[in-house]
Amino acid sequence: MPTRPESIDTLLVNVRIVDVFRMRTFPGWVAILDGRFQYVEEGNPAKGIAADRTIDCSNAFLVPGLIDTHMHIESSHMLPRMFAEAVVPQGTTCVLADPHEIANLAGESGVDWLIRASDNLPLTVYFAAPSVVPIVSRDLETPNAELNTQVIERICAHPRVLSIGEIHDYNGVAAGEPRLMALGDVSLRSGLKIEGHIPELMGCDLSRYVSLGVTSDHTLFSPEQLLEEVSKGVYVMLQRKALTPEIVSVIADLPDRSRILLVTDDVSPAELLDGHLLSVVSLAISLGLSPIEALASATCRAATYLGLHRQGAIAPGRRADCWTTRSIDDPTPVSVFVEGALVAREGKGREDSFVEAAVGPTRLAAPPVPGPLSDDDMRLASEIAGEATISARAVELLNRENSLTGLTEVRIAVRDGHPVLEIGDDLCIIGVFSRADPTSRSIAMLKGFGLTQGGVASSVAHDTHNLIVVGRDAQSMVTAAREVHRLGGGIAFATGESIDSALPLPIAGLLSDAGLQAVVRDAQAVDASLKSHGVSHREPLLLLTLLALSVSPHYKVTDRGIVDVKQRRILAPLLP
Asked: What sign has the CA pseudo-torsion 143, 145, 146, 152?
């Protein structure tokens, strides 16, 4: 207790403090001075404390601000300020953003722009230096930008860069690709950890990957993988799709859960309205994880992983990022504080808390969206005149929950090189067009997408972000692609010559300068167009953008052709 009269900035009284160290709550009071917790005590406030402001929390719980240790701002299509306006009222006060999306289009200047655009916000944004740009070698996909080792080290020197970003090309590491192995030396010289991306590796392959300096994985699929990764010193980051009753049961049985973190990874605009990281915490609680365990995996454990020893808990000396809620079993933020200042209440941010950052030009030096395209660009077999029946490889979607794919063979009719699809065949034409090299493009077949009519085009195509077009007929595909070209980037759905819906993304073809509500409205319209025309996947837009992700199991399509991800080779779309 203070022995002399003491002045503080803010006093929170009548509050139940969530102690994420001892996994408990206790009634008490909190004093905040200069943006940090000065006192965190049980019972009633000590005598002799004079506060500029006293807030009676009416017996609400006081929770540390949530920390998202793996995410990508670009996936929300939001500028950082609008992203912050969406997530801070939901209790997220700190994120580690990996800007490899913008880096794959605009290189080092894109990374620098995103860092500057994240200044002066009530959301603390740290960064991971993008590690693999381009994501794969040029023989598998035409890149739009490149970050060599010297550039990566230069980015690592920025004070808000805390790690080296995820190495997607885990097969490349297993194969000993020199540019990837060099990242281990960058890690040693910079003193920064390396983020992982390990959807398949186990045993010796996993050990080889982790030995590079990898400290985390956010692509977990099985309990067995979770246990092996924990044993090998990996922080296991669980996003929404990894949370299952089976996984939660395994976590609950661990004697030490300090290496279990909750993250968001890629988040759609609509998901920003649904709680962001808090929705992942709530899902874990609903599946049986205790509320304080779930909160610890998004607060103190996250801070420890990032080396943020002054954040992540309600404890003396820690930064006063916190929020109140009436229940921790079903937590919903009432008041959100950042450095002790009230920045949001009842789901809405205070306007004076979100300062416009000096974002610079919104038209980055990124390769333009290809176009305008024509019907001839959609030919599968350009050498065929008239009618014929041919054999082709088709990338096949294996379920409605994720982007896992296989490969199958199909017999299809073609007319002047264009596939003639039949009702009920569940086939689509898929095309990928390079931004950097207008002459590089490929057309292939896709099975299992569900589309029965129309076409969709997107300048968002992880992670290189070339133009991807999927449809049932050339005319619809061309109409959608031309609309995306006209908008300067985005996603559009068309039937025939008519545009049904579109999401404009004029900033590098990835981001919008419109408000969150407008982006959500337009994204949901495109999503609805896809669903109403047969696509039954859980997240149609996300699936679309992952069809060209050339490191995602097991087969994807790039401007070079069909990529066999495991064997790291290109397969021709047509069979002999």
From this structure: negative
Cis status of the peptide bond prior to 465, with omega within 30 of 0 = no
Range list of β-strands (E), 321-423: 322-325, 333-338, 341-345, 348-349, 387-397, 405-415, 418-420
Burial per residue of 485-501, b for 16 or more beta-carbon CB atoms within 10 angstroms, e otherwise? bbbbbbbbbbbeeeebb
Handedness of CA 460, 462, 465, 468 (dihedral sign): negative
Residue with tokens 């203070």: 2
What string of pLDDT tens digits covers the 576 residues of the chain? Answer: 555 567 899 999 999 999 999 999 999 999 999 999 999 999 999 888 889 999 999 999 999 999 999 999 999 999 999 999 999 999 999 999 999 999 999 999 999 999 999 999 999 999 999 999 999 889 999 999 999 999 999 999 999 999 999 998 888 888 888 989 999 999 999 999 999 999 889 999 999 999 999 999 999 989 999 999 999 999 999 999 899 999 999 999 999 999 999 999 988 888 888 889 999 999 999 999 999 999 999 999 999 999 999 999 999 999 999 999 999 999 999 999 999 999 999 999 987 887 765 565 566 789 999 999 999 999 999 889 899 999 999 999 999 888 899 999 999 999 999 999 999 999 999 999 999 998 999 999 999 999 999 999 999 999 999 999 999 999 999 999 999 999 999 999 999 999 999 999 999 999 998 888 999 999 999 999 999 999 999 889 989 999 999 988 899 999 999 999 989 999 999 998
Helix ranges, 254-360 (H) = 269-272, 277-286, 291-296, 300-306
Pair 73, 97: CB distance under 8 Å? yes
Question: Domain 65-313 falls in which CATH fold?
Answer: TIM Barrel (3.20.20)
CB burial of 186-223 (b: ≥16 within 10 Å; e: otherwise) equals: bbeebebbbbbbbbbbeeeebeebbebbbbbbbbbbeb
* Alpha carbon distance 551, 572 (integer Å): 18
Q: Report which residue type is found at 520.
A: V
Distance from C-alpha of 488 to C-alpha of 509, rounded to nearest angstrom: 6
The residue count for the chain: 576
Q: May I ask the CATH class of domain 1-64+314-344?
A: mainly beta
Are the beta carbons of 82 and 89 closer than 8 angstroms? no
Structure tokens at 551: 């490191």
CA distance 71 to 310: 21
Task: Check if 1-64+314-344 and 65-313 are the same fold.
Answer: no
Helix H or strand E segment including 13: strand 6-19
The residue ranges of DSSP E strands in 75-222, in sequence order, are 92-97, 124-129, 161-164, 193-194, 216-217
Neighbouring CB atoms inside 10 A of 310's CB total 12
Q: Return d(Cα 456, Cα 430) in angstroms, integer.
A: 10
Residue 139 tokens read as 């023989």
CA-closest candidate to residue 184, choices 213, 156, 208: 213
Show me where the domains of the chain are located: 1-64+314-344, 65-313, 375-571
Q: pTM, whole model, 2 decimals?
A: 0.93
